[in-house]
C-alpha cells in the first residue's frame, strides 16, 4: 500500500517549473503551455527570459514514485502574476512546495515565498542552474531572501531527472522533520 502526497512546484515566470515536472515525472506530464502572444506585451516581464515563447496558463501535472510506499503528485503553478489566482486551487491539499529560484532574477522569488509563508505551506528553495546565471554562495542567497536556517536551500538542475528527484527528496525529508515527534525523556 502506498501513500500519495500532493506537492506544488512554484516560482516566478521562466524559472523552470514545467521543466522540473517534465524531467522527473514517470508519466507523460500534463502541461498547459500556450504560445505567448502580443496580448502579454507590457503585462508580462520578460527581463532575463526574452527568448521564452511559451508559458503555463493553468498548471503542469506529473507523478513520481519515490519508493514502493510513497508517490508524489506534482503540480506546477503558472509563474506569471496574472495567473496567480489559480494558486488557491492548486495549493488545496498540498503538503509542501518546492520554490525554484533563478539567480539572474532573484527578486522574482520574493513574492512567491511571501505567498507560501502567508499560507503556512512548508517549502524548500531550489536554486535552478542556468548556464549564464551568476553563482552566489548559499549563505548570501539565504540572507538576500531572508530565509530562516530551518528552510532547506539546495542547488538544482531542473533539466536533470536525478537533480529534480533529489530536490523532491529534500522536501520529503523536511516535511518529515516537521512532523517528527521527539521521544519523551524519562
UniProtKB/TrEMBL annotation:
InterPro entries: Gliding_Motility_GTPase (IPR052705), Gpn (IPR004130), P-loop_NTPase (IPR027417). Transmembrane segments: none annotated. GO terms for molecular function: GTP binding; hydrolase activity. Pfam families: ATP_bind_1. Keywords: GTP-binding, Hydrolase, Nucleotide-binding. Belongs to the GPN-loop GTPase family. This is Putative ATP/GTP-binding protein.
Amino acid at each position: 500500500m502506498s501513500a500519495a502526497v500532493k506537492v506544488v512546484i512554484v516560482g516566478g515566470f521562466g524559472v523552470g517549473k514545467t521543466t522540473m515536472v517534465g524531467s522527473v515525472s514517470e508519466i507523460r506530464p500534463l502541461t498547459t503551455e500556450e504560445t505567448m502572444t502580443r496580448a502579454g506585451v507590457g503585462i508580462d516581464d520578460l527581463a532575463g527570459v526574452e527568448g521564452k515563447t511559451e508559458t503555463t496558463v493553468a498548471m503542469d501535472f506529473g507523478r513520481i514514485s519515490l519508493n514502493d510506499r510513497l508517490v508524489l503528485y506534482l503540480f506546477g503553478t503558472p509563474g506569471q502574476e496574472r495567473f496567480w489566482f489559480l494558486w488557491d486551487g492548486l495549493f488545496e491539499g498540498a503538503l509542501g512546495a518546492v520554490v525554484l529560484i533563478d539567480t539572474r532574477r532573484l527578486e522574482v522569488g520574493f513574492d512567491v515565498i511571501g505567498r507560501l509563508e502567508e499560507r503556512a505551506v512548508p517549502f524548500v528553495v531550489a536554486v535552478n542552474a542556468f548556464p549564464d546565471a551568476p553563482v552566489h554562495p548559499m549563505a548570501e542567497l539565504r540572507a538576500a531572501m531572508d530565509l530562516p536556517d530551518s528552510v532547506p536551500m539546495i542547488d538544482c538542475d531542473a533539466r536533470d531527472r536525478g537533480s529534480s528527484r533529489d530536490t523532491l527528496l529534500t522536501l520529503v525529508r523536511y516535511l518529515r522533520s516537521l512532523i517528527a515527534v521527539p521521544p519523551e525523556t524519562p
